[in-house]
Specification:
single chain, 228 residues, mainly alpha, two-stranded antiparallel sheet, 2 strands, 49% helix, 3% strand, Putative mobilization protein BF0133
Length: 228
């Protein structure tokens, strides 16, 4: 574009120049100006810059040399190293410290027999954050009822929790099922949904002997059966 404008200007004012002089002018004047223009555009154009990322999503990993900065941990982080190489102490601990400092909340899946729990518990206790240990081992844990009424506010919640429970208990995936196994899985899932619905809507129903207690009205049965 700059070269075209230069040629047009020369044509308008009627200056007769030879090719050698023209090329010399391009090399000495036009190209440096064009290069300067590109550099200024790249480093000063705000519209093409990076989007601002909140400070809490930037993690500074302490190393022996220059610190490693993770710009946006919301994209996910994968740590690959050999067993016993110190992934937990060097990487996980830095993450836990960052989460404590910026008051993150979430779930920690401790796959190392309480090793990560022993590391995380004192960190979050110092900050005054609530820290609950959920485990099937009896010595230290908080009791959690995944089908408590407060966790199942609507029909969609009942469907979701019943599906997740069955997939984890049966250790099957949706893609692994054929038509026969899917039929039995759906039947058990429907039974589980009905069981949870009656338990939450009519707590005393499951403890009565058939026929069901006559004090329960037809409307109560209908309301409980609605999401089964």
């Amino acid at each position: 574009m700059t070269l075209f404008c230069l040629l047009m200007a020369l044509g308008i004012i009627g200056i007769d120049v030879d090719i050698q002089t023209l090329f010399k002018a391009i090399l000495l004047l036009v190209l440096p100006l064009q290069f300067t223009n590109i550099v200024c555009y790249v480093y000063t154009d705000e519209s093409s810059g990076k989007t601002s990322i909140a400070k809490k999503y930037k993690v500074v990993m302490k190393t022996r040399g220059t610190n490693l900065i993770l710009e946006n941990i919301r994209r996910g982080v994968s740590v690959i190293a050999a067993a016993g190489s110190g992934k937990t102490e060097s990487v996980i601990y830095n993450f836990l410290e960052h989460f404590k400092t910026h008051a993150f909340n979430g779930v920690i899946h401790d796959y190392k027999d309480f090793e990560i729990t022993e590391m995380a518990y004192p960190l979050f206790q110092e900050s005054g954050a609530k820290f609950y240990i959920v485990s099937f081992d009896p010595p230290i844990h908080y009791k959690v009822n995944p089908i408590a009424p407060r966790y199942l506010p609507d029909e969609e919640s009942v469907y979701e929790i019943s599906r997740v429970l069955l997939e984890n208990l049966l250790e099957v995936r949706e893609s692994d099922n054929n038509s026969t196994s899917r039929f039995f899985k759906d039947a058990v899932e429907a039974y589980k949904r009905t069981h949870m619905a009656f338990k939450n809507r009519l707590p005393g129903l499951l403890y009565n002997s058939p026929p069901f207690d006559s004090t329960l009205s037809a409307n109560q049965y209908q309301r409980a059966y609605k999401i089964s």
